[in-house]
Amino acid sequence: MDIDAWIWWLIGAVGLGIPLVLTAMPEFGMLAVGAVAGAVTAALGFGIVAQVIVFAVVSVALIAVVRPVAARHRDGRPGLATGVDALKGRQAVVLERVDGQGGRIKLAGEVWSARTLDSGQSFEPGEQVDVVDIDGATAVVM
Predict the structure, then answer these.
(1) Contact assessment for residue 81 and residue 90, using Cβ atoms and an 8 Å cutoff
(2) 30-88: per-residue pLDDT in tens?
(3) How far apart are CA 63 and CA 57, in angstroms?
(4) Would strands 104-107 and 110-116 be described as parallel, antiparallel, or unpaired?
(5) Is the pLDDT of residue 116 over 60?
(6) pLDDT, tens digit (0-9, with 9 covering 90-100), for 80-112
(7) CA distance to 12, 38, 43, per residue, from 4 (Å)
(8) I need a labelling partner for 96 at 20 to 30 A (CA). Which of 25, 32, 79, 84 fits?
(9) CA–CA separation, 34 and 81 (whole Å)
(10) Which residues contact 127 (CB under 8 A, 6 or more apart)?
């Protein structure tokens, strides 16, 4: 039983697709696309040298072009702050006098215990303060 070259290329593409799924390394997917291009070249009747050249050119071109673009998109995405990290940098209103010992503020619609960053500083009710940190269940303000 003689299997055509294009079938071998497709078997190779599937073989490269398996580590892509297992390792989540996109380079395997780009090599698999190169193998599919080799299969198309074989199906069109070109020789093994042309098939290997097409495989190499397509694979290298995809790795050279797609990988940097994907890295730029991955690195350029701003991180989404959640939980207490989302509260840092927000403004709050003082409900009860806040000093180095404690107090109460209204932050993001909720009442929080608070203390000042500088223990010698204090804020009176109604003043706006900036939240610089969250220490447990206490907002540190200035």
Answers:
(1) no
(2) 999 999 999 999 999 999 999 999 999 999 999 999 888 888 887 766 667 788 888 99
(3) 10
(4) antiparallel
(5) yes
(6) 778 888 899 999 999 999 999 999 999 989 999
(7) 13, 12, 8
(8) 84
(9) 39
(10) 93, 94
- Is residue 43 a contact partner of residue 7, using CB atoms and an 8 Å limit? no
Query: What pTM was estimated for this model as a whole?
Result: 0.53
| The Cα angle at residue 73 between residues 133 and 35, in degrees rounded to 5 | 145
Q: Which residue has the tokens 């409900």?
A: 95
Q: What does the alpha-carbon distance between residue 101 and residue 117 come to, in Å, rounded to a whole number?
A: 10
Show the tokens assigned to 76. Answer: 């350029």
Distance in angstroms (rounded) separating the CA atoms of residues 98 and 80 = 30
Q: What is the 3-state secondary structure (H, E, C) of 45-112?
A: CCCHHHHHHHHHHHHHHHHHHHHHHHHHHHHHCCCCCCHHHHCCCCEEEEEECECCCCCEEEECCEEE
Sign of CA dihedral 69, 75, 78, 79: positive
- How many CA atoms lie less than 13 Å away from 120 in the CB half-sphere? 0
Q: Please give the pLDDT value at position 83.
A: 83
Match 């380079």 to its residue by tokens: 27
How much is the CA Rg of the chain, to the nearest whole Å? 30
